[in-house]
Amino acid sequence: MNISDKAKKNIYILWLLVVPLGTYLAFEYAPIRQIDWGTLSLLIVLGLLTTIFPFFISGTTMFLVQWVTLVVFLNYGIFAELLVMQLFLIPIAYHMKTNRENAYRIVYSSFMFFLVSILCGTITHVLGFDLGSLVVKDVLIYGSIYAFLYVLLNHLFLYVRDVVTGLKPKFFTKDFGWDLIGLLMTLPFGLSLYFLQSYVGTSAFALLGIPFILITLLIRLYSDSEKVNSDLNKASEFGHELAERMTSKEIIDMFIERIANMFPIDAAYIVDDLYGSFEILRAIEDGENKDLHFAHEELEQSLAGIVYEKGVPTLYNKQSEWLHIKPPFLSLEMQSVMCVPVYRNKKIEGVLVLASRNKYSFEAYQLKIVHLLCSYFAVSVEKAKYVREALAKSERCELTKLHNYRYLDRQLESDMEKLSLGQHSSLSLIMMDIDKFKAVNDTFGHHSGNLILKEFAQIIKREIGSSGTVARYGGEEFVVLLPNYTKTEAFHVAEQLRLKIEQTPFIVQSDLDQTAGEQIIFITASIGISTAPEDSDEGMSLLRNADRALYTGAKQAGRNRVAEYVR
């Protein structure tokens, strides 16, 4: 949330006017019970441990500390609870990566939790709760009221804040739902700890506190792995989308755009080694493209040049770690920096630099994911180069004698136009990919791989005949255009092709060992299908949809199968 400097100033003033005086008034007039400092100290330690180890579910950060503050309130009242809650904001501020620019957020949180503590405690007392009560019915009722009010008022204040700042928020959000779930998880722990420590003393913390912290750590480990897996899936999808782009400009544009969306960055730069001289190939700062030019020597002596020389991805968590090797394009406002070499053909061709104004913005695993994405990027650029050269030669694949991508592109455009004019009732596109083709090349050699590609192409051509257009899309990928075929009919054709390929013996000539000779092997293919107009009314989208169905519905589901595109 971006707010004006005036609004930030007003937040600080509001806090100074309300929180110190309000804390004093709570001390003077709110009901209070004599504090057992040993018990309170253990509660504080338990609460700090809970806030130090938050976890993330579906993009929501959860600090399950309310069960501890509930016990503090039930025992000692409003004043003790609001002080303890303010103390718990310290590790929360750390996790929010608080700095001078966004410190107003933690100040507002302090103000908000102060008001929530006062209101929840006051309402609970007015309804009749007595501090330190051990009447089970009263504790269950008033403890539940206090806890639910805490969540409700917390989100009410957030809702009002967003309305005042000009946003159009929804009250019942995903975060609100997760907070309610967190409350339902922790309320029984809080009530149980209250009763148990009242009857058995400090051993209650070992009986309930330690198991809760262990459960929290286990959930955190699971949620962390879930987040890593989610990012890896996004990276995989990103790689496929990059592979769909046919020009270097399209690839670079998409790469920068998606990197900016995937990671918490304020600036991104691609430093390219162009014939032995460093240049800024692309730069984006705060979402805007920049045209930057610097001397080769300046870039070479900076962190970009050092990472280029060493070839090792590097993560800097704060400015003091990279200031002595600051590149000329990097603003002094930046703190966290990721610098990743871009390899192509086992040679470093450039460096990607990502920067954030916040300290510790990036996780170590994200550095590895960016490194992976840079590999996809380099491969896609290289692929675009080869595709461009191949398209310039002819409309036929020299190896398979099928149509090539250049012809396919034109034919697809023509068929889509006929569809729009009503000359075709439908247009189905089948995309095929030979499973584990690299393993064939590695085992039997590229000559055998070429023999398989040629025979594979002839099988498709014989099966399709004059019913459609068959083209080699690139590598081990093939495309079939079937005018006037519904998706069901296309699926039947694709399944017949899959079975034919699966049952056909392919003869290879191994040239990688001393016993060279002919061998018979069997291969399989994964197939994706998309149909116009139901899936798309644009040719390239139809192609992308079939490709997505191939990889997500067929490859990722186990290979050797046919998958339809599903919206």
In a nutshell, what does this entry contain?
The chain has helices at 5-29, 37-52, 66-76, 78-95, 103-126, 136-164, 174-200, 203-244, 248-262, 296-300, 303-310, 364-393, 405-420, 437-444, 446-464, 487-503, 539-555; strands at 55-57, 60-62, 267-274, 277-285, 288-290, 314-316, 336-344, 347-356, 427-434, 469-474, 477-483, 506-510, 517-521, 525-532, 562-564.
Architecture of the largest domain in CATH?
A: Orthogonal Bundle
The residue-averaged pLDDT reads 86
Order of the strands making up the biggest sheet: 5-4-3-8-7-6
The level 1 CATH classification of the largest domain is Mainly Alpha
Assembly type of the chains comes to single chain
Give the radius of gyration.
31 Å
Q: Give the helix level as a range of percent.
A: 55-70%
**CATH topology description of the largest domain:** Arp2/3 complex 21 kDa subunit ARPC3
Q: What structural category arises from helix and sheet content?
A: alpha+beta
Low-pLDDT segments: none
Q: What's the main sheet like? A: 6 strands, antiparallel
- Into how many domains do the coordinates divide? 3
The tally of beta strands, per DSSP, is 15
Backbone shape: elongated
How many DSSP helices?
17
- Beta content comes to 15-25%
Distance between the termini: 32 Å
